[in-house]
Amino acid sequence: MKPDVADALKAAMPNAELDESSSADDCGGLDILDSKDGSKRKGSLDVTIAGAPSDTRQSKELVEAVVKQLSSRGWTVEKRSDTTPAGHPDGYMQYLKKSGLHGTVAVSASPFKLTSGKVSQTLGATVVTDCLRNPDWRKE
Q1: Going along the chain, which residue ranges are E strands?
Q2: Cα(75)–Cα(41) distance, integer angstroms
Q3: Domain count for the chain
Q4: In 41, 117, 118, 139, which residue has its Cα 20 to 30 A from 101's Cα atom?
Q5: Is residue 80 part of a domain?
Q6: Does any domain span residue 140?
Q7: Is residue 63 part of a domain?
Q8: Within a domain: residue 56?
Q9: pTM to 2 decimals?
């Protein structure tokens, strides 16, 4: 999932650098005293690009550029009611899935004001896997 997403973001903003952060959570198995047994995991990866102030494209235009790239690689847009990223009312967001992959990608963009007073866009994608079996989990 990550290579498609990273390539699509780079195509939308070719001269910017990607910033990545990831996490994983236990999400399945037996509940014992409010903790999971670790037999299933959900992973997430956040990839963001800070745009240049000279790039005057709006949030929706940036997201649609990434969606177009992903669509050409077999991804399809999921119709959801939330098309605005949380906390960013001026932003735009779309969700995508790809047949054969277990997860979802949320592509979003939102403007932010620089100290110079100019406005720049942040383009990003959050890749979240479904709750999948953790092959490293062992019963003890």
Answers
A1: 19-28, 31-32, 35-36, 40-50, 75-78, 92-98, 103-113, 119-129, 132-133
A2: 23
A3: 1
A4: 139
A5: yes
A6: no
A7: yes
A8: yes
A9: 0.84
